[in-house]
Amino acid sequence: MAEVPTDLCFTKDHEWVRILGAVARVGVTEHAAQMIGDVVYVSLPTVGTAVATGDSCAELESTKSVNDVYAPVAGVVKSVNDAVVDAPETINSSPYGDGWLFEIEMATAEIPSNLLDASAYSDMLASDG
Questions:
Q1: Alpha-carbon distance 13 to 17, whole Å?
Q2: Residue 121 CB: number of other CB atoms within 10 A?
């Protein structure tokens, strides 16, 4: 089974969120990276773009499919990880580390109720499998 770090929040769409004060760092889970396959192209949002929860704001392209990445929180895109554009395989090799995608300055300091903790995400993966 894919790794599920206990210090992160997760979405039902297999994004992870690391809350850093008022900023949410976003990436895709190891499970998502495995399902997508070898990532060959990454399209990231533009810094300064306002996003609502659930907005499609990035794309990951593999040899077999194109996959949207959704904003897990509302706010403004604060930064993007340009390193994954140059080396998209980082998303597969380090999904919870160097393979992060973008950061959102959250509209509210509250952790949204739509996010799952590690236990709930693990349970979801187990029931899907």
A1: 12
A2: 23
pLDDT mean by block of 10 residues, the chain; 129 residues: 89 95 96 95 97 96 94 97 97 97 91 90 88
Q: Report the amino acid identity of residue 78.
A: K
- If 0-12 CB within 10 Å is exposed, 13-18 middle and 19+ buried, where does residue 58 land? buried
At 126, which amino acid appears? A
* Angle made by CA atoms 90, 24, 54, in degrees to the nearest 5: 90
Radius of gyration of the chain (CA): 13
List, in order, residues 6 or more apart from 29 with CB less than 8 Å away: 2, 4, 10, 14, 15, 16, 95, 96, 121
